[in-house]
Design goal:
mainly alpha, about 80% helix, about 0% strand
């Protein structure tokens, strides 16, 4: 049975992962290779880093446990489709619309998770979702209202798919953690499957000139820090807190992104960003302090 100390660990892990992942945009801005290849290399470096951990623990057999293999395949395919759909959505609709629609994932989790992982979604989760979405809208106001915004059916479709796939691998990851599959083993399997699915497309869109030291360094940092480390923290955190809470805490990722941009790129955040960030932080506080522990939801 979980204890408040364990719940605090879960929130701390998911929060840390969101803060780490906020650096993704800054890292990607330094890279010049096609997005598909950058993502494939990111997953490759993540696979190598986690493969060392999984090998040291001799946890290979866990991957082939009854029920685990199918769920790991689903989670890996969902992650690959999420990453690919997100980039397609950005190209077809622009960053603001792609981010907003893909970040509807916590709404899907709140509605679907009780039917799959059990328990129930509390009212405070829906309140926090409303607050977080309002904050996200404020952050994206300039992009959503910009004259250069363009919408296509294809872009909107893939933006929604990105959000749906994000919710799938969160829920399936939660199931695997509840079955005592280690977080690093889950993420390792997801990375390997993503590499297999995304590398052919990445190679088709890249040339030898794209494989520079700078691009490889960014891919390595993305793979080790924002994949191997952050994804493992998320998966382990979900073992201690409800998946609905974890998904809302994920909204803190776009809040931390402007901080990295300010420190590393000297980009000053707008007042819209500051106001939206305050609302998103408030949403995280709501689920942390007013949400129920997981065992209470399952009772």
């Amino acid at each position: 049975m979980a204890t408040p100390r364990h719940a605090s660990r879960g929130y701390a892990e998911v929060l840390s992962a969101a803060l780490i992942n906020g650096a993704i945009g800054t890292m990607v801005s330094y890279a010049t290779m096609p997005a598909s290849m950058l993502v494939a290399l990111r997953m490759l470096f993540g696979s190598v880093a986690l493969g060392i951990v999984v090998g040291a623990r001799r946890d290979w057999k866990t991957i082939f446990k009854p029920g685990a293999r199918i769920r790991l395949s689903i989670a890996g395919a969902a992650l690959a489709l999420n990453l690919l759909s997100y980039f397609i959505a950005i190209r077809e609709t622009g960053v603001a619309v792609a981010i907003f629609l893909s970040y509807l994932a916590p709404v899907y989790v709140a509605l679907v998770a009780p039917r799959i992982v059990g328990g129930r979604t509390e009212r405070v989760v829906f309140v926090a979702l409303g607050v977080a979405l309002a904050g996200m809208a404020l952050i994206l106001v300039p992009g959503l209202a910009g004259e250069g915004m363009h919408l296509t059916a294809k872009g909107l479709f893939f933006a929604v798919v990105a959000g749906l796939m994000y919710s799938v691998y969160l829920i399936v990851g939660k199931q695997l953690r509840d079955r005592q599959v280690h977080s690093t083993t889950i993420v390792f399997s997801m990375c390997v499957i993503s590499v297999v699915l995304l590398t052919p497309l990445g190679l088709a869109q890249s040339s030898i000139a794209d494989f520079t030291g700078r691009n490889l360094l960014m891919a390595a940092l993305l793979g080790v820090l924002t994949t191997a480390l952050s994804f493992s923290l998320i998966m382990d955190g979900m073992h201690h807190i409800p998946v609905q809470h974890a998904s809302i805490m994920g909204y803190l990722e776009p809040v931390s992104a402007p901080v990295y941009a300010l420190v590393l790129l000297s980009q000053v955040p707008s007042s819209w960003t500051v106001a939206g960030g305050a609302l998103i932080i408030a949403a995280g506080v709501l689920v942390m302090y007013f949400g129920k522990a997981e065992q209470e939801l399952l009772a």
